[in-house]
Design goal:
The protein has 302 residues and is α/β, with parallel strands linked by helices. The chain is built from twelve helices and nine strands. It is 39% helix and 19% strand.
Length: 302
């Protein structure tokens, strides 16, 4: 469906777009429609509803139609606008990186709460961020703590390019060093073992069987490298939990995001290592166990 010149009012354009999106079973079609029109017109959404009879020129109508049909084919809204809000900050995203989810804000908030401890007030805080993606976790921590140094890695060079754009965008390049490599391999030449205060990660945690049933927005557009964590979804957790104790100083923390059914399995992995104390789970707004934090104890490491 496309619009003719006589129909080019904001009201008509929105109504037509909502109809298209509903037919494609896009969730929240109204929000998608007005977000994309505000994006095309470079205006606030409020303007759309206070001036519904304003005429939109043909060039903008054509551009809007193109974006609506792209959204109707299940391209995620955030990839179309190249923007997502996370921790009240504006991040650039595209199909090279996973779209940051609101649940991951809980991970950032957990770390920030722990750094409120007076232990961290008068010295630098060293953080490793494994699988940084768009850099949303690292940038959010850097924006909220002045005394922090973050080493952020990803196995995808393309993801690091996006992360670099976000680091520059938020003026935190002096606090974040990007490193290319898999899990802990990226840090071996840049970070001293046993000197890290926090390791944070939102690793791929979808199992191979679950990946076959993902919604179109995920399976067709978001990078599978950032989604699938092996046959059982625990591949990266096993490696991170096993090796983190070599990097974190006694009293430091591992803070990770998990899938909603993985808490028991991951807690067991930590308990089997014998180096983790104060294992804590934090629930998301839907009541799912979403974040696990654990403290490295003072026992002598092997």
């Amino acid at each position: 469906m496309s619009l003719t010149q006589n129909e080019n009012t904001i009201r008509n354009i929105l109504n037509s777009a909502i109809t298209i999106l509903k037919k494609s079973e896009i969730e929240f079609p109204e929000i998608n429609a007005d977000t994309l029109l505000a994006y095309v017109l470079s205006c606030d959404k409020t303007n759309l509803y206070t001036k519904p009879d304003n005429i939109v020129d043909n060039t903008d109508v054509a551009k809007y139609n193109e974006l609506i049909h792209k959204r109707a084919s299940h391209v995620p809204l955030q990839y179309i606008t190249r923007r997502v809000e996370f921790m009240s900050l504006d991040f650039v995203v595209d199909e090279r990186v996973l779209i940051p989810r609101p649940e991951t804000e809980i991970l950032v908030e957990t770390v920030l709460k722990k750094t409120d401890n007076k232990l961290y007030h008068d010295r630098a805080i060293t953080v490793i961020d494994i699988g940084t993606g768009s850099g949303n976790i690292a940038v959010s921590l850097a924006k909220n703590r002045s005394n922090i140094k973050i080493y952020a890695s990803d196995i995808s060079q393309e993801a690091l390019t996006v992360a670099s754009e976000n680091i520059q965008r938020h003026d935190v390049a002096d606090k974040i060093q990007l490193l290319h490599g898999n899990v802990f391999d990226a840090f071996s030449s840049n970070v001293k073992k046993g000197q890290v205060d926090f390791i944070v990660s939102n690793p791929p945690y979808v199992s191979e069987s679950e990946s076959r049933n993902l919604e179109p927005e995920l399976i067709d557009h978001e990078p599978l490298l950032a989604l699938v964590g092996g046959e059982d979804g625990l591949f990266f957790y096993k490696q991170i939990i096993k090796d983190a104790r070599s990097w974190i100083k006694p009293g430091g923390y591992l803070v990770i995001e998990i899938g909603e059914t993985q808490a028991d399995s991951i807690i067991k992995l930590m308990q089997n290592e014998l180096h983790y104390d104060e294992i804590e789970t934090i629930k998301d707004l839907q009541g799912n166990e979403r974040i696990i934090s654990a403290r490295i104890n003072n026992a002598k490491k092997n």
